[in-house]
Amino acid sequence: MKCEHVLLILMFLSTAAIVVNAQGIVNLFDNPGFEEGTGTDVQEIPGWRLYSQENATGLLSIDTEEAIEGKQCVRIEVTGVPAGGAWNFRFDHTRRFSVEQGETYTISFWLKGDPGPITLSPSRAEQNAAGQWGNLAQAVINPTPDWQEYHLTFVSPEDRLVMWQLLISNPGQTYWVDHARCYVGEYVPDQIGPKLRADSPFPFNGATDVPRDAALGWSPGEFAATHDVYLGAVFEDINDAARTDPRGVLLSQGQTVTTYDPPGLLDFGTTYYWRIDQVNAPPDSTIFKGNIWGFTTELFAYPVVNVLAASNGISEATAGPQNTVDGSGLNADDQHSIAATDMWLANPPDNDVLSIEFEFDRVYKLHEMLVWNYNVQFEPVLGFGLKDVTIECSVNGEDWAVLGDVEFARATARSNYEANTAVNFGGVAAQFIRLTVNSGWGPMGQFGLSEVRFLYIPALAREPQPADGAMDVDPETALSWRAGRDATAHDVYLGSDAEGLSLVDAIVGSSFAPDELTFGTTYYWRVDAVSDEVWTGDVWSFSTQEYAMIDGFEAYTDDIDAGEAIFDTWIDGWVNNTGSTVGYFDAPFAERTIVHNGRQSMPLLYDNTSSPFYSEAERTFASPRNWTVNGADTLRLFVAGRAPAFVEMADGTILMNAIGNDIWDNADQFRYVYKNLSGNGSITARVDMLDVSPDMWVKGGVMIRQNADPGAVNVFMAMTGSGGGGSTFQQRMTAGGASVSQHTYTDGPFTAPYWVRVTREDNTLRGYTSPDGENWTQRGDTIALAMTDPVLIGLALTSHNVNQATSAQFSNVAFTGNVTGAWQVAEVSVAQPAGNTVAPLYVALEDATGKSAVVMHPDANIVGRSGWNEWQIPLSEFTGVNLSRVDTMTIGVGSRTSPTAGGAGTIYVDDIAFGKPAMTQ
């Protein structure tokens, strides 16, 4: 198929392991500094792989001599290109990444190498609705012989799965890459080398609304023995102060801890500056002056936003009451204009006094109201501004209390008019404020205002942790919040019913550790701040994680001497005398490509060809585990098998695997399972499952073909990954000729399960698809192609990746016409993988007293299914086992109780956990 021509593609998913550096950057790349991995001329290192196609060649190596950061970098040598200069050679991350429309992203990396322009771009990893691939953004860079950091920052124009890529058009070049970073937000220059200064400040640099009782914290420099703390409100003092000239801002000298709690409370609404100097240990005791950071403390009172205004007066459409609360006419310095359309002006209603009423979104503890009176240019003559006003308040809009009578100052009638009346509300609780106009500054009988602003004291508890709507919260998490101003206590309500919350505790502080929460549950909670009255808080929610991890296989290393290898924890046949082997013989011992989450999974090789005819990997825990906490009722693990080369089940379902660069161009690489057809006929099949992880152009479907030669003429109706919208009808019209296709259909995209069909009538061939096996749509052109009987008719599969196999499951395979013979299996142009021999999969648990139970997987063919399959096991099935004292867990292939000679294969296990799936609530 047509492909993007790129050299270096960095692809990743949002599930990738993240790294947070000292600058607070959350790096989405796995193994960003290439510190994991060894070897020269390798195909992959942890988190990254070499991928080439269209005859491009190159070498990938770990370089321990040229690194700019850490101990290793990666070297890429481009050694060959196909005729014509077009080539495709990829060094890609093993995961892709979803970007969101409107979000800002940055990718940066250190690079040096041969000269010549390189284009850096995030490219679509799937077609958009218009069928386009292409780049979301791009930047041209020019490498030099010296290390430099290059970056691209862009705002994503769409929600899309992307590949990061470096496009290089010149062969024969060598490049070194180090410390790749990808993160949300604007570019932040990388800091490499030994970290000599403090960083990661808390409050973070530029923070606002910082509590007055906040403590300072930081991450120390690499060689720091002690720390000097400077804090004050004058930048110059913080910048210039030293031990010899403390200027009253050196508040702590030579402290060993990396936190500092200022004495007393900080001032309201003040910007503070601070600096942490790192002091090395004797004998040199070098002082490294720190960066200057700043933060601003909380205000005493905050503006109420989203205020509604209404009046009983009669106004022009452009001079309504909402003009008084929408900021119209105010500039950045809070100075009001003289434009009448920025103000409210009204005539009183007949036989009534004029009033204007303001409504807030909730009850607030009001501090004051700022008033900008009516301010047109001729206000000194007109006198429309309010003068004597009665102010009332209400919590419900029905019951009103008079706060008092106030005189509003007259406006200046200038365009730099600032608020000149402040009404003190004294902390009254109100959701509604009403101003009744008793008189104005003139005799005209019309009255107006420019703007009012209400300020409130934050009496409510706020800033909940977990955040409102948080997902996957640890059930052991303590709840915390920012205290309501002047609160002496907080009443905490918690439950799983938002309408029926129960008081669970009264807290003096601002955190609460609830009794045991349940996995997979949405909880609602509310914190009422108690001061001179009770301030009822908002109802927040969070959802607990469904599972707690037992083993995600991320902690294992290749350090055998330290006992950190995967087979040091998961014991295999080398010790337990079964047919199993955990991990690989050569490092890396864990699987680094086929992973469910994170960067590693456990490869479990089984060989049941000899006694005892079953294979087990077992883990004994250092101490018995309790899997009954937090309402747990389920053991969960993810298993990926390998499809057999070809097997037909009793019900006619077919499992098969394949590898190959493509079914395309002039010669094909694939597995073909076929029978013979003479004359007219057809084949129909349901593609139940297609493993698309090797490439978006994985193809699996039905084919009619002249013979099993690589360049044979054929027609092929296939399902794909995301390539071509999930389906393609393609043909090769002459032996050894180029292939053509029709895809990206307007009613797509499509995904398995889906039906496909190819028909032959004389020399006319057609391809069809169907969502249900009943309603069929012809795809592409009607093909006129002469083939000599008998032709081959069957199932074709290719991975579009010479380094990774794919698999498929077909069902409802049906023929018409004179189709004869048993299934034959052809390995077209490339040796095909043997795959797994199908055998049962089971899990056994044993408790601390030796009682055990075994649970078999309900799908007897599970080890023959590639791709990740979740297995949820009700803990109740482990009959007789004390699940509060689990001592050993075993994963096995075969049968303990009825062992019989079988075959061999490999499965992958990842993310073993216990918990309670949300659906069982």
TrEMBL record:
One of its GO terms (molecular function) is hydrolase activity, acting on glycosyl bonds. InterPro entries: CenC_carb-bd, Galactose-bd-like_sf, Ig-like_fold. Pfam families: CBM_4_9. It comes from the Bacteria. Residues 27-157 form the CBM-cenC domain. Residues 1-22 form the signal peptide. Keywords: Hydrolase, Signal. This is Carbohydrate binding domain-containing protein.
